[in-house]
TrEMBL record:
InterPro entries: Endonuclease_7, Endonuclease_7_sf, His-Me_finger_sf. This is Recombination endonuclease VII.
């Protein structure tokens, strides 16, 4: 401590308001006064300022709380100006820009204040988040949903609720349902993996061919295996791990079968062959085991309803081949989501079923490199089951 500070601590002064003699540290500095200190102590100075502030606010028709000195707040606590309560500092968020290091309001009040600001500046919290994350407004999203007829553009079954965007460009693509949006994420927006999964489910991919070579059938096992395969039993009388009995009851295979299947697949996913196989996959109708996919492919197929048509539509969607803009009857433009082409806004809920199989056959027979592709002009299925142009 310097000599000047020591002298300042030893000095004292009489406050002109309260009349008490207090140390110089209880007075603010004021160069205009002879002794360099304010005429009133800090407590009285605060009361004066508070009285002037409240008088001015009252003249403006505003209400204010009663005056309270900051020094009245005990150590380890902080005053929340919104709920007018003194709370422990643990109930306040961190804010490095504040002198105290904490937010002005406690956590509940801070959240409420932020929500009010978002509604005031952006109309709603949803509108704020849409603009922040995707660069679109709530009105634009509602217009896109109306253009789609209110349904997800991929599965054409569930309500369109989730904004989907290209993770590379950040541009919004369309509005999807929760399952289709999640399924795309599981497949990393990879159209090739989506089409491989569709072939896998139809037992027409490379894994199914390998199974036919090894077993003579593309699937094996199933809950009824005990009845049709009398030689299939647990070897020995020793107890097996719980996983063994779980697989035996649910899939009709045991640990030895799973190890054999992993060996056939060389330890890789039966769908994409890019990641290690982790889960037993089975047909939910027959119960027969198809193979062992990785976690992402297994979850992605489940979210896309184990439906090859949905998977191929998802692949075309990712590549920009599913949703097309075509000329409308009123001279404008509208969306086209299927082949044969219909206006999505005119299709009632549940009315897509008649078009589903035709569109699925079209997706199955066409690939991205087909140059003669002209989606709006394709018609119904021909006599041999192939799409014929109108």
């Amino acid at each position: 401590m310097s000599e000047a500070d020591m002298v300042s601590l030893m000095r004292s002064k009489k406050c002109l308001d309260c009349g008490e003699i207090k140390p110089a540290t209880e007075f603010w500095k004021l160069k205009a006064s002879k002794d360099g200190l304010a005429y009133y102590c800090k407590s009285c100075f605060g009361v004066r300022n508070g009285r002037y502030y409240r008088k001015k606010q009252t003249s403006l028709g505003k209400q204010t709380r009663a005056y309270r000195r900051y020094s009245d707040v005990p150590d380890g606590k902080k005053y929340c100006a919104r709920c007018d309560e003194i709370k422990p500092v643990g109930e306040f968020g961190r804010n490095r820009s504040e002198k105290s290091g904490y937010t002005t309001y406690c956590r509940p009040c801070h959240a409420a204040a932020v929500a009010e600001i978002r509604v005031r500046n952006h109309g709603s919290a949803r509108n704020y988040l849409l603009k922040l994350r995707y660069g679109v407004t709530e009105q634009q999203v509602d217009e896109m949903i109306a253009e789609q007829g209110g349904v997800c553009v991929i599965c054409l079954r569930a309500d369109a609720k989730h904004v989907d965007h290209d993770h590379l460009t950040g541009l919004v693509r369309r509005i999807l349902c929760f399952k289709c949006n999640g399924g795309l994420g599981q497949f990393d927006d990879d159209p090739d993996r989506l089409r491989l999964a569709a072939d896998y489910l139809e037992l027409r991919g490379s894994h199914a061919r390998r199974m036919r070579i090894e077993l003579g059938a593309p699937v094996f096992g199933g809950p009824d295996r005990v009845r049709w395969d009398p030689f299939w039993r647990t070897k020995g009388n020793s107890l097996k791990p719980a996983r063994h009995y779980h697989r035996r009851q649910r899939y009709g295979i045991n640990d030895d079968d799973a190890e054999w299947l992993l060996k056939v697949q060389m330890g890789q996913c039966a769908v994409c062959f890019d990641f290690p196989a982790e889960h037993v996959d089975h047909d939910h109708v027959s119960g027969a085991v198809r193979g062992m996919p990785c976690s992402a492919c297994n979850t992605g197929m489940g979210q896309l309803r184990d439906d090859p048509i949905t998977l191929r539509r998802a692949a075309d969607y990712v590549e920009g081949r599913l949703v097309q803009m075509v000329a409308a009857e009123d001279g404008g433009t509208r969306l086209s989501l299927t082949v044969p082409d219909v206006d999505p806004a005119t299709v009632p809920r549940g009315g897509w079923k008649a078009l589903w199989e035709q569109d699925g056959e079209y997706r199955k027979q066409t690939l991205p490199f087909d140059e003669e592709l002209d989606m709006p002009t394709w018609g119904a299925l021909g006599p041999e089951g192939a799409m014929s142009p109108v």
